[in-house]
Amino acid sequence: QVQLVESGGGLVQSGGSLRLSCAASRSLYTIYAIGWYRQAPGKQREMVATLLSSGTPTYSNLAKGRFTISRDTDKDTVHLQMNSLTPEDTAVYYCAAESKRLGWFDYWGQGTQVTVSS
Q1: What does the radius of gyration of the chain's CA atoms come to, in whole angstroms?
Q2: Are 6 and 95 within 8 A, CB to CB?
Q3: Which residues contact 63 (CB under 8 A, 6 or more apart)?
Protein backbone atom coordinates (compact mmCIF):
# COMPACT_ATOMS: atom_id res chain seq x y z
CA GLN A 1 0.00 0.00 0.00
CA VAL A 2 0.92 3.63 -0.46
CA GLN A 3 -0.54 6.54 1.46
CA LEU A 4 -0.18 9.93 -0.15
CA VAL A 5 -0.66 13.26 1.58
CA GLU A 6 -0.72 16.46 -0.46
CA SER A 7 -0.07 19.97 0.73
CA GLY A 8 0.63 23.40 -0.67
CA GLY A 9 -2.55 24.31 -2.49
CA GLY A 10 -4.23 27.66 -2.11
CA LEU A 11 -5.25 30.88 -3.79
CA VAL A 12 -2.84 32.74 -6.04
CA GLN A 13 -3.14 35.54 -8.55
CA SER A 14 -2.71 34.99 -12.24
CA GLY A 15 0.99 34.93 -13.11
CA GLY A 16 1.93 33.69 -9.67
CA SER A 17 3.50 30.48 -8.43
CA LEU A 18 2.68 27.65 -6.09
CA ARG A 19 4.57 24.60 -4.92
CA LEU A 20 2.67 21.43 -4.16
CA SER A 21 4.09 18.61 -2.09
CA CYS A 22 3.14 14.97 -1.79
CA ALA A 23 4.48 12.86 1.03
CA ALA A 24 4.48 9.12 0.37
CA SER A 25 4.32 6.47 3.06
CA ARG A 26 7.16 4.41 1.62
CA SER A 27 10.38 4.92 -0.27
CA LEU A 28 9.98 6.54 -3.67
CA TYR A 29 12.45 3.98 -5.01
CA THR A 30 9.84 1.26 -4.36
CA ILE A 31 7.06 3.06 -6.23
CA TYR A 32 7.06 2.49 -10.00
CA ALA A 33 5.72 5.97 -10.78
CA ILE A 34 4.37 8.91 -8.82
CA GLY A 35 3.02 12.21 -9.94
CA TRP A 36 0.27 14.75 -10.25
CA TYR A 37 -3.12 14.83 -11.88
CA ARG A 38 -5.71 17.56 -11.77
CA GLN A 39 -9.44 17.90 -12.21
CA ALA A 40 -11.23 21.15 -12.90
CA PRO A 41 -14.98 21.54 -12.34
CA GLY A 42 -16.94 19.85 -15.10
CA LYS A 43 -13.82 18.42 -16.71
CA GLN A 44 -12.11 15.06 -16.78
CA ARG A 45 -9.10 14.34 -14.65
CA GLU A 46 -5.87 14.94 -16.59
CA MET A 47 -2.25 14.10 -16.06
CA VAL A 48 0.06 16.98 -15.19
CA ALA A 49 3.46 15.41 -14.55
CA THR A 50 4.88 12.12 -13.33
CA LEU A 51 8.18 10.64 -12.19
CA LEU A 52 9.39 7.11 -12.57
CA SER A 53 11.28 5.49 -9.72
CA SER A 54 14.40 6.09 -11.84
CA GLY A 55 13.72 9.82 -11.63
CA THR A 56 12.69 10.21 -15.26
CA PRO A 57 9.95 12.83 -15.59
CA THR A 58 7.05 13.03 -18.00
CA TYR A 59 5.13 16.24 -18.56
CA SER A 60 1.82 16.86 -20.21
CA ASN A 61 1.61 19.69 -22.74
CA LEU A 62 -0.13 21.89 -20.19
CA ALA A 63 2.83 21.61 -17.84
CA LYS A 64 5.78 21.91 -20.21
CA GLY A 65 7.76 25.07 -19.65
CA ARG A 66 5.74 26.14 -16.60
CA PHE A 67 5.71 23.27 -14.12
CA THR A 68 8.55 21.23 -12.70
CA ILE A 69 8.22 17.93 -10.90
CA SER A 70 10.96 16.95 -8.49
CA ARG A 71 11.53 14.65 -5.56
CA ASP A 72 13.28 14.47 -2.23
CA THR A 73 14.14 10.82 -1.74
CA ASP A 74 15.32 11.41 1.82
CA LYS A 75 11.82 12.55 2.73
CA ASP A 76 9.92 10.41 0.20
CA THR A 77 8.26 13.57 -1.04
CA VAL A 78 7.41 14.71 -4.54
CA HIS A 79 7.02 18.38 -5.39
CA LEU A 80 5.28 20.21 -8.20
CA GLN A 81 6.56 23.73 -8.77
CA MET A 82 3.98 25.65 -10.76
CA ASN A 83 4.88 28.99 -12.34
CA SER A 84 3.04 31.42 -14.59
CA LEU A 85 -0.29 30.21 -13.33
CA THR A 86 -3.48 31.20 -15.11
CA PRO A 87 -7.14 30.85 -14.11
CA GLU A 88 -7.27 27.80 -16.40
CA ASP A 89 -5.00 26.04 -13.90
CA THR A 90 -7.70 26.21 -11.24
CA ALA A 91 -8.44 22.64 -10.21
CA VAL A 92 -8.10 20.05 -7.52
CA TYR A 93 -4.62 18.60 -7.81
CA TYR A 94 -4.14 14.96 -6.87
CA CYS A 95 -1.00 13.07 -6.08
CA ALA A 96 -1.09 9.56 -7.50
CA ALA A 97 1.13 6.51 -7.35
CA GLU A 98 1.53 3.50 -9.59
CA SER A 99 2.80 1.11 -6.96
CA LYS A 100 4.17 -1.38 -9.50
CA ARG A 101 4.10 -1.44 -13.27
CA LEU A 102 0.36 -1.65 -13.91
CA GLY A 103 -0.41 0.89 -16.60
CA TRP A 104 -2.59 2.89 -14.25
CA PHE A 105 -2.24 4.72 -10.95
CA ASP A 106 -3.63 2.63 -8.11
CA TYR A 107 -3.21 4.96 -5.14
CA TRP A 108 -4.47 8.50 -4.83
CA GLY A 109 -4.22 11.31 -2.34
CA GLN A 110 -7.18 13.30 -1.12
CA GLY A 111 -6.41 16.24 -3.38
CA THR A 112 -5.52 19.86 -2.78
CA GLN A 113 -7.36 22.84 -4.22
CA VAL A 114 -5.50 25.33 -6.38
CA THR A 115 -7.38 28.48 -7.29
CA VAL A 116 -5.92 31.10 -9.62
CA SER A 117 -7.66 34.44 -9.68
CA SER A 118 -7.58 36.78 -12.66
Answers
A1: 13
A2: yes
A3: 48, 49, 69
Residue 18: count of CB within 10 angstroms of its CB:
21
Q: Contact, 96 vs 109, CB < 8 A?
A: yes
Contact 85, 17 (CB under 8 A): yes
What gap in Å lies between CA 93 and CA 114, rounded to an integer?
7
pLDDT per position as a tens digit, 74-97: 999 999 999 999 999 999 999 999
Q: pLDDT tens for residues 23-58?
A: 999 999 999 999 999 999 999 999 999 999 999 999
Residue partners of 65: CB distance under 8 A and separation at least 6: none
